[in-house]
User: Fold this.
Amino acid sequence: MSDRRLTRLHAHEMARGLRAGEFGARELIEAHLHLAHATDRALHAWMFLDDDDARAGADRADARLAAARRDGPAALAALPPLLGIPVGLKDLVVTRGQPSTAGSRILEGFVGPFDAHIAERIREAGAVVLGKTNMDEFAMGSSTEHSAWGPTANPWALDRVPGGSSGGSAAAVAAYHAAVSIGTDTGGSIRQPAALCGVTGMKPTYGRVSRFGIIAFASSLDQVGSFGRDVRDAAALLQTVAGRDDRDSTSSPVPVPDFLADLPDDDDLAAGYLRGLRIGLPREYFVAGMETGVEARVREAVSALESAGAEIVDVALPHTDYGLATYYIVAPAEASANLARYDGIRFGHSVRDGDVLADYLATRGTGFGPEVKRRIMLGTYALSAGYYDAYYVKAQKVRTLIKADFDAAFERVDAIVAPTSPTVAFPLGARLRDPVAMYLSDTCTLPVSVAGLPGLSVPCGLSDGLPVGLQVIGRAWDEGRVLRLGRAFEAITADAEWRRFEPTDLPALDDPSTPPPRVPSIPASGRGGD
Assistant:
């Protein structure tokens, strides 16, 4: 099998090939490293590729595979599902001996002294980490244009954004650089880029995955999740990293079920799950400004679910309209506290030209980008004397009401489906003049994050040649049902014409004359006061 063919396989297909001896882990990893190095110039999905560490991981995987073959079929079947599979990590996952910048100059030069919990789990499972993917600075953004190291492009259209803040992780999977990747979701930062890049993205219940070793944005909202090219692959990565970790007091002791056991390879079996399932459709998620093509693809997906035996039930989530305001009080408030640690004294970027206060101000002034500064100021204001009760406390009360809406809906339905993003991928630079317009990119994903619920985005078609995502929302700790519904949707649309298309601009990535992505220059007066 050619190198390029190997990169086109799904992770579960790679696993079968490795166990059957059709190719080795070293061959698989070399194919992905070669493709990433050859085509990332015009994409900029990667912050850092560690070839030596990846090759060493591949050799260890080959040794485990060889030992299992000697021990027989039972030993092969018992191997972890991601053994030998290439993985990308978002640049806020701390890993020992490797840079971790969270997309910010204030962490320039920082090298991890330990492995995050999820990095430990991934390595224990024998998956091979290729490197770190690009992201919006401190995960603050919806387009990956706020990375201090430059934007990432969308493989479907290199002049458009991949979504954010996990845009690098989504683009790496869409461009076949990695089979699966890790993202984090604070207000939609897995699901929205998954939708815009035409891949699958899973945000689990808050507390399902440890945040130990994850560079924080908003501690009560941040959650680690997975990207894959289909539901089974995203589930395999979630299965690998989920579970209790005593180093993170917010990680839950709730047992992690075997997600993969309920996701059959056979499409007929998978589609059968829909018969008799009650699925809620909230009218509030078809927001003003939603593109006509996006709404059409989502409603076609809902019709397909109904035709396959599901019952579609109209549900009301009346406090959805307050999700955006609630999030943009709670998240900046927590960010202002979390980012206070970056003082230029202990690690990362440092300016030392004057007294302590002058150095502190200069370090933060030059180390943080404009979006991070904006959110720190918003959060500090919301927490200040005289405004704490008026803003932060009130936002937390509304957060409870948003969660209560979902609880009431789940008394009537088994799951909820909705659009993931109100638009397809928008042009680079198009929303930087208006931060509020950028924030509205996550209007369909924010309420789920505020409520701490699991959400999945799966591709559901194309609009104007660009991917559209269908969002599946479940009860807390009910990731299994969410994944089964997503897998069933894959099954009933397996023969759809749009599933045969690859990202349109992949050939341009191979052309060495294609320039790196850049954000068009914007007058200072047009940057929302930055």
Observations:
- Confidence is low (pLDDT under 50) at residues 524-530.
- The CA atoms of residues 508 and 514 lie 6 Å apart.
- The chain has 19 helices and eleven strands.
- The chain has one domain: 3-322+399-510.
